[in-house]
Amino acid sequence: MNTSLSAPHLSKFFTLLLTLATVVGGTLSLSGAARAGALEEALRDTSANVIFLRHTLAPGNGDPANFDIDSCDTQRNLSTSGRDQARRLGAYFQSLDIQPDTILSSAWCRCQDTAIEMGLGPHTVFAGLNSFYDGHVDREETLALLRKRLAEIEEDSLVLMVTHQVVITAVTGIFPPSGGVVAFNSRTGVAKAVGAPIRP
User: Fold this and answer.
1) Which of 5, 183, 185, 187 has the fewest Cβ atoms nearer than 10 Å?
2) SS3 state at 61
3) In angstroms, what CA-CA distances link 51 with 31, 88, 111?
4) How confident is the model over 114-139, as pLDDT tens digits?
5) For the chain, which domains are there?
6) DSSP string of 122-184, one letter each residue
C-alpha cells in the first residue's frame, strides 16, 4: 500500500503543524508543536497528582559564591528569555485547562519567579523543593520533607512543584531541561518525562 503523501497533502500537513504551533500568548517552534498532547498524555498515563517543573531558563550553573537565600541579587536568576518561557508555559497550561490545586516552589528566586510569571495562581514556598546542589541546604533533610509532603497529597488532587533539576532527579530519576516537566504519581511512584513543552 502506498503511504506517501502527495504535494497537496504535504502542504495541508505543514499547514496543520503551523496551526498547532500557535498557543495563547505566543507562537511555538515546530519542535514544540510536535510535542502537542505530550503533557496531557503523561498526566493520564501516570494518573499524576504531581507536576514537577524545573524552573525556566536561568543561564549558568549553581549560584554565585556570595549566595544569600534572601537576596535575589546574589542568585542565578531567570533571563529575559526564561521569564518569557515561563509566561508562555503558563499560557500553555491554561490552553489545556490544566489548573493545579496547589502551587509549591523552592525558595530560590528563579523558581518563585517561574511560578509568578506562569500566572496560574499564588504559590507557597516549600523547603522540601530547595536546591542542595551547592550544599546550601542538607540533601537528606530536604528530601525527607519532600517525601513527607508527597505522601500527604490526595490521589484526586494536582500539585505543581516548581523546583530544581537535582530535586526532580533525586525523586524520579529523570533529568529535565530548563522548563522541563515530569508527571508524577506520589502514590505509585510512577513518573513520566514530558521534556520542555515550551522552549526558551
Assistant:
1) 5
2) coil
3) 22, 17, 14
4) 999 999 999 999 999 999 999 999 99
5) 35-195 (3.40.50.1240)
6) --EE-GGG---TTSSS-HHHHHHHHHHHHHHS-TT--EEEEE-HHHHHHHHS----TT-EEEE
